[in-house]
Amino acid sequence: MSVPHLTTALTGPLHDLERKILGSLPEIEHWFRNQWQEHTPPFYGSVDLRNAGFKLAQVDMNLFPGGFNNLNPDFHPLCVQAAMMALEGFCPDARRLLLIPENHTRNLFYLQNVAAIVRILRQSGIMVRIGSLNPDITAPTRLDLPDGGCLLLEPVQRQGRRIRLADFDPCVVLLNNDLSAGIPSILRDVDQMLLPPLQAGWAVRRKTRHFAAFDQVAHDFGDLIGIDPWVINPYFSGVSGLDFQTREGEQCLADAVSDILNKTRLKYAEHGIDEQPFAIVKADAGTYGMGVMSVKSPDEVIGLNRKQRNKMAVVKEGLEVSEVIVQEGVPTFEQINAAVAEPVIYMIDRFVVGGFYRVHTGRGPDENLNAPGMHFVPLAFATPSNTPDCDGRPDCQANRFYAYGVVARLALLAAALELEESEDLVQPLAEAVA
Amino acid sequence: MSVPHLTTALTGPLHDLERKILGSLPEIEHWFRNQWQEHTPPFYGSVDLRNAGFKLAQVDMNLFPGGFNNLNPDFHPLCVQAAMMALEGFCPDARRLLLIPENHTRNLFYLQNVAAIVRILRQSGIMVRIGSLNPDITAPTRLDLPDGGCLLLEPVQRQGRRIRLADFDPCVVLLNNDLSAGIPSILRDVDQMLLPPLQAGWAVRRKTRHFAAFDQVAHDFGDLIGIDPWVINPYFSGVSGLDFQTREGEQCLADAVSDILNKTRLKYAEHGIDEQPFAIVKADAGTYGMGVMSVKSPDEVIGLNRKQRNKMAVVKEGLEVSEVIVQEGVPTFEQINAAVAEPVIYMIDRFVVGGFYRVHTGRGPDENLNAPGMHFVPLAFATPSNTPDCDGRPDCQANRFYAYGVVARLALLAAALELEESEDLVQPLAEAVA
């Protein structure tokens, strides 16, 4: 495989789609090699997949991945090797990198993710310091981690067109902060390279733009290996002008849900799938699994009760939601110990470097698993003894995972297109302030 | 680390050199990034190291590595990722690769190496077939392997300026045949890309040219991290015009040995090393550990007996030896189960992808271990639980291995320079035949 051999939660035979992807390995890798000659992958990313058996689709792509601490430690050398490639590609001459994380200072899970990213970067050969945008961090602040390690957060400063720490002038800045609250002026019009670029932040980014780019990628990929692109791509549409509190736009939303459910029903009939369609309504600029609902009928978005309205109206950083994406729901047929599971695949540069299962014991196969109560099960390397037998056998776990890595990389390619196309959406500081 | 975490045979504290290399990680990786902007690494290679504690030196660099079957299977995904990079760098548009192995058809160890290379290449996304130069292979020939797999060898054909199989026109040709017997005319003036290029074969290559390039690399690296380059670089000189059977040139050889021993003695005194110097005499175009002797005095190369003469006079493919390299011997202080061991590091593109120990229970620390009776112990990943503690502790195994990877990559860089400089040494077919 061109990706780490992982165990998957599914152990049954591969479905047609996975078999087809596996059988087209040389064509697929040749195609990716050519795509990466034309398009630059983001520095890193993670992709949420859902495997319904009849369909293996990406449902979300994160350009500021948390959760590196959840990867299997066996993948660490792969992460380092891929980060070396990313540094060489983006900034071969860089010596010093400033990592800007989220403002959380008490979320130990998140801080362990930051520590994992720092370790990967340091070992790939660059000096790393951590700069915080958190207004509470006014002096270097040491945060202890459960594993005995610690992080030193230091306040970010601006000097002319450069950002820096008091005694550290970075060559390049890596964001692990998704900028949900808007692009802070300290990050605008900066001379240093920002990775990923500012338009990757949720202040600018929209899920609908990502999935529009994915439509194109899935179409081309479908042509390449001869599949209906629908089997890797969920239907979606965007609804804007919503106000969940005043119920403005409610009927538009219901119509969009109805449309997605109808299209899905037709596809289910076409492919002989005996399932009830459902739709996912998500904030178009949302993350952290906030502002998400799963509906089986347009009626369910009409006359939301106060609790539902509150849930949908506000996402991370208290932002109000007026734009949503309505996405065809993809049931997940994967289970770990009888709990519903969905794979999350991690990439650095254009390489799959690991993944884990998001598992929720209290949710069903048609529900959002990115919710309180979820836990993570790192995907492990398949036992080495499986590997040599794999070449001809499509039903081994390593082969199943190859298909996951392919769909994740298609999402990465869509993100590359999306970032190219949305470059002009970041206003220079003068206009932004004016 | 920027290389796989491996266990090493040594478990004592790191020596000064290893500590210095580890402490300079960001500078070293920055330097390598810049070197690889200027110079293209060979497709693959393996490097023999000797760790004397006071010295950690490369003693041989192989551009047609065998032994991929001896790598720990845990490294397989790293190999695949690195091979993806190599394909993308050398031939992004290639779809079909022809692998040309050595002519051995009964050496099961070697055939398993070929199978391992095929698996890496296929999984990195290219169609692979095996073309044999062996005159006995006149039709497709299936060879069974001990693990239940098999290899299909097919006769290489020439068609105009292309080489091919009957029904396979490759875009690129990967040599795992070191061309000791000379460059066959079927490989000359070929339009396809040959990897590595023909001047990498022992028909053209000389160890003395490699170590001349390594002198430059070691010098620059010594400046970078502030070490005497001697601690990573053995003294050497070349002697030509030898005839072991008629004893022609014998005195020249003795003088060269004397010179290397004297220089080494001075360095030992300068560094306060209480060891007896020795020298290694090797065929300048030799491989497979053939034509090697270890001497402690110039007298030992005067008046060789018949057995010694026969051993030195002829190497692989029955070639006569008239040129040798006299190299400062580097004792190995590494042992596995009380047997003398030396690490062999494998690289694909510019990445360390694994390694193993060459172990010999019947040889001493100042002897060549590449000899009948040797066996191999794959280096394993360090247990993941060691990893998080490593950052600050220079005495953990993963940290020791980082130094090994650095020296191996210096040898790879020297090979890149050597191949650039020796490009003109391959004669076009017309001249070669004339």
From TrEMBL, chains A, B:
Membrane-crossing residue ranges in chain numbering: none
GO MF terms held by the record: ligase activity
One Pfam family recorded for the sequence: GshA
UniProt keywords, alphabetically: Ligase
InterPro entries attached to this UniProt entry: GshA (IPR011718), GshA_N (IPR042520)
Protein name: Glutamate--cysteine ligase
Source organism (scientific name): Formivibrio citricus
